[in-house]
Amino acid sequence: MENPSGTPIVEFRHFIRHPLRLPLAYKIIKPGAGENKNEVRSETINISMGGLLFPSRHPVKTGTPILIRMPFEGKIFNIRAKVVRSVNNSQTKLYDIAVSFPKSKDAFKVKMIEQIYLIAEYRDLRRVKEGVDISLEEASREWIKRYAERFSKIHW
What is the pLDDT of residue 32? Predict the structure, then answer.
């Protein structure tokens, strides 16, 4: 397979990637110095059990530990990750930053965030298609009953 510039694409993926746009902010964690104060906003391009991909205006060195913050419904999820790739994207003029989750608890957080977004989308779809306005809690119960088993098998 080749990218638009004609160079071969090297496949790094070990997990299925799911295109999903979720807001995020990240900070570089400097060893011994703690977190960098500068938070950069972005959004996911895709997510998988092993990591996620997001664009950035600046490259981030491979191996760099970062703290990702993902908001949803008034809560902030903090996820530790490590940069595994930082590639200049000639189409967007940004850097595609790929990160992995060294700890399974951080991968689990991202899966839960994905599920919450899918439930909110399900609630919105019910509102648009059926004119039914239900709470997030009610949508959660319905979505879990209908899709949770399939979601656990397909998505991770």
Answer: 65
Q: Domain boundaries in the chain?
A: 18-103, 110-155
Asked if residue 9 has pLDDT above 70, the reply is no
Domain 18-103 has CATH 3.10.20.740: no
- Which candidate, 76, 49, 51, 45, places its Cα nearest to that of 66? 51
Amino acid residing at 102: P
Tell me the C-alpha distance between 19 and 23, whole Å.
13
Q: How far is CA 1 from the centre of its chain?
A: 25
Asked if residues 49 and 15 have their Cβ atoms less than 8 Å apart, the reply is: yes
- Distance CA(69)–CA(76), nearest Å, equals 6
Give the pLDDT confidence of 95-140 residue by residue, as tens digits: 999 999 888 888 788 877 877 888 888 889 899 999 989 888 888 8
